[in-house]
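As a warm-up, study this chain.
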Amino acid sequence: MLYTVPLKKAGQSAIQLVGSKAWHLGRLIQADIRIPDGFVVTSQALERFRHGNDLARITGEDEIGREILRASMPADVAAEIAAAYQFLQTSAKQPPCPVAVRSSSSAEDLPESSFAGQYDTILNVRSAAQLEESIKRCWASMYSPQVKQYVRQKESLPRFPPWQCSSSK
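Now compare it with the structure written out below.
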């Protein structure tokens, strides 16, 4: 699996692959703390999405978020996400189980800043198609006006956008 990691294994993964929130949740699960089941869409999925849609060619900050929403999920990424979602549904005690899509960027919780609440969270997702659109919405929110303003206020932040903050994507 390149593009998804079960949440219970996220604490064993590189933090740049799963992001700090998912990594910490994975560590809590390993410590036998009860956390709802889930999976992580990795930074490799975002990289594959970016390259598969040639998003590096876009230079306008305002244009990139819209282009992410219009772009197609590469078939291999979509298939792996759909399989992880299906596994989650079949293992749920009361399927269908609504899920939430949240960011877990490796650049979210830095010593000099916290992006908590800056990216979109999409709740009550109930289908694979809705999940795919919600993931794109979450990725596109990296370019929202509030994130751009926050970055401007924190001029010391390392390379932005966040997908450029990790070296192992």
